[in-house]
Write a structure and sequence with these properties.
Oligomer: single chain
Number of domains: 2
Length: 277
Amino acid sequence: MKKLFAFIAVIGMLNFGASFNVVAQDETAQTTEATVDTQDQNTEEVAAQETAVEEVAPVADEEVESTSFHAEVKRQFIQGGAMFMSFVLLTLILGLALSIERIIYLNMSTTNTKKLLTNLEEALNNGGVEAAKEVCRETRGPIASIFYQGLDRIDEGVEVVEKSVIAYGSVQMGLLEKGLSWISLMIGLAPMLGFMGTVIGMIGAFDSIQSMGTISPAAVAGGIKVALITTVSGLIVAMILQVFYNYCTAKIDSIVNNMEDASISLLDILVKYNLKK
């Protein structure tokens, strides 16, 4: 009985030892597989990071290229030829200077017509012609100047006042349109200079072909590219100045319409004033 019990105990210990070894081997294998998987995952993460860095690098290069706009403009200016590109740039500078001067002048010439007429009528009824003249002197703009010229001749009759207003209105219109002809000249001159630079550049390209004796696509394409830069620059300058020119003409038309309406209202006020006298 004891031997049987001892035999069973030995078999049980052997089975337990074998099971423990199997479990230990399984855990070791799992640990090894987990280590391999971790290494593989780390390797994949490193590769993904390298790929991301490689993808970010072109974006960074694109950002650097986009920030170098002034350098690109400078390079195109040099490629287009310093002489003709300088003339095109000069037309842009002169055209912008004239346009800005006209815009400032026209904005300063804008007058609140309704307020001026109200103040003028009150001053005329309360203080007479001299008070009305003082209101015109204190108001800025061509409309107030026209009113002053009309009030200065009120003693000569309404007809004389009307003629004076019409004549001085023409003078003020000329002052408003002063400088627009020069802006128009710059608008037409800029593309002409660009076309001239293009033609001269094409002549240089054909001279190069003649000197080489053979047609080189690279030389021809490079020469044509350089020649067309001046044309593009001239057209861009003309478009920019055209916008300012149209703004100035629209502003002048608005001021002239206000001048005409205000002149009619002034004559009505003066007629009423003469009737009250």
